[in-house]
Amino acid sequence: MKALLLKLLRSSVMVAVISLGLFLWAYHSPEFRVEDLSVEGTSSLCPEELVKLTSIRPGRNQLGIDLKEEALRVLSHPLVAEVELARRGLKGIVIRAKEESPASVIRGKKRFGLSLEGRVLPYELCDGFLPLPILSAPKASLTPLEKLREPQILYALDFYRAFLKISPLWAKKVSRIALSKSGDLLVSLNPRPLTINFGRGMFTEKIHRLTFILKENLYSLEEIELIDLRVADQVLVFPRGG
Asked: Mean pLDDT, to the nearest integer, of 49-64?
């Protein structure tokens, strides 16, 4: 029995030594060194900018790279919404990134993009995404990449998120969202100018009410100038020139 245990112990030690030797060989072997580090999915961001956020450099061994940890490094960039790192063969690593994209435009002293999460984006990112709804903003100083703090615009953004969730088809026709002096939320639809007064609060219920009449084609949009949803459980329709 002792001889058997001793034999098993020797075998275990031998396996451990061989495994350690193979690991050390692989760790230092040029066969596993990174030669190709590529970036996919970006359009506005410079690939080199994302690579610099990682600790991966050409010549580094693949076995010493924690892809999840490196992904978190890339995700720290304020314009990166999602990211995934994957190995490509023995010598390659690919960074697949999804950029933050503007869902609307803010008009203040300057123009900025605004993501659905409320991040202020450089306006040049909007060029490939127009036409986007314009959120009227106080002429305050906004800094690119910051989280928006302006309560009025966050209020309008909350509404737009709800509209996109409930009725994405009609939400995509929104050209402008503004707050009146009285605090009512005014929404303009394209292609023909049509103003909808959502009043204040209860947006989910009002959006459902609006999309019902639009879906049922109860009115011809070309003949409508204003839809007023401020009155509880009612939809007031005002014809053009009326």
From this structure: 82
